[in-house]
Amino acid sequence: MDFQEQLAELRRRIARIDRKYADGAKLAAPEPPAGYAELPHVGPDAFELLGGREVENPAGKHYEMERTWERSRRHGNIDISDLSDLPGDLLDAISDGAVTQSSPLRWGFLDTETTGLAGGTGTCAFLVGVGAISAGGFHLKQFFMRDYDEEASLLHALTEHLAQFDVLVTYNGKSYDQPLLETRYRLARSRPPFERMTHVDLLFGARRLWKLRFQNCRLVELERQILGVERQGDLPGEMIPYVYFEYLRTHEAFKLAPIFHHNALDILTLACLTAIVPWSFRSPVDAPLHHAAELIGLGRWLRRLERFDDALALFRRGLEKNISDELLFRTLWDVAQLERKLGRGDAAIAIYTDLAASRNPFRVQALEELAKHYEHREKNYAMALEMTQAALAVCASPALQHRLERLERRVSAPRSRRLL
Fold first, then answer.
1. How many helices (H) and strands (E) are present in the chain, helices listed first?
2. How much is the pTM?
3. β-bridge mates for residue 201, sequence order
4. Burial level of 88, CB count in 10 A (0-12/13-18/19+)?
C-alpha cells in the first residue's frame, strides 16, 4: 500500500468515527467499582478543607496540602510525641549498617498514589505524600497534580522538599514507589533526588517479624493487628486510580478527599510502625516480643547474619510458647541444624530422635541424619541400617536406597579377628 492509499484508508476510518458519533453520542464511562457510591465524600471545597493551596515554581503549577498531628495525639497504641524521641541509631541494624546515626527529624516518610497498580512507564504518581517528625508532632505535605501538565511542577517541588531529609522511609518503596518516581523524573528530563538519601524499606523488616504470624503483611493489616487501628470508610487502594480518573473527567475536587485521607493514614501508620519494627532488630535477644512466630521470624534473620547463638536463643523462646504444629516441627529442625553447626552433636541427635519418633514433615530428614550419625560417628551399622529402613518406609529415594545397600553389605560382611 503506497502513501496515497494509506491516506485514503485513514480518511475512511475518520469518516466512520464521525458518523458513529454524529448523533452526539459520547464514549461510555467505565463502570464504577463495587462500593463507589458509598465512598466518604466531603463538600466541593475539599482542597481548602484539607489546607490546599496552589503552588507555582519554575516548572509550572501544582497543588499542595498540609496537615499536622500534634504531639498530644495518638495513632492506635503509639503516642505521636514518642516519634521525636526515637534514638538516632534505631535504623542501624534494620538497614544493615547503612544508617548508623541519624536524627528522626531527618527521616522522610514517603508514599505515592498512582494511576495504576502495576507500574510501568505509563503509570505516574499523581499524589506524593511526605511525612516528617518534628518537635511539634508529625507533619505531612502532599503534592498533587490536578492534571498531567502539572507533573513537572510536582516533581520539582518534591525534589526541593526532600532536600531536608537524609533517610527515606517507605513501605515497599524500593520495589514500587522509588523506581516509579525515578522513571517519571527521567521522562521529565530531571534528576531524581534519591541518590543522596539512604532508603529504608520497612516492608522487609515487617515481613521478617510477622510473615509467620499473619496471612499477609500489607500496611493496613499491620495497622489493624499491631497498632490497633481500624479504619472506617477507607478507600480501598485498588479503587484509587478509578477515582482519580473520575476527577479528571468531571473536575469535581470533592471526589479526591478519600484519596488524600488514605494517603495520609498510610504515611502516619508507616511512621508509627517505624517506632516498633526497628527496635526488634536493634537488640533482638532483648526484644519485647511475646508471640512465638515473631520470635522465630527474628531468629531466622539472626541465623542469616550467622549470629547462631542469638538465633538459637530466640528459637528456644518461641518453642516455649503456644505454637502451631507446622511451625513447631520446622523450628525443631532449625534448632537441630544449628546445634550441629555449632559442634553440639549430642543436642542435635536428641532433637533428631524426637523428630524421627512422630509423623511430621522432617521425619525422613531426621532419620537420615541419625543414620549418618550411627554409621560415621558410632560405627554402629546395624542401628544405621535400622534408621535407613525406617526412612525408606516413609519416603523412598535413590540416595536412601543406595545407603541401604551399602549398610546391608557392611552388616553382612564378616568381621576380621585380631591377632593376639
1. 16, 9
2. 0.82
3. 170
4. middle
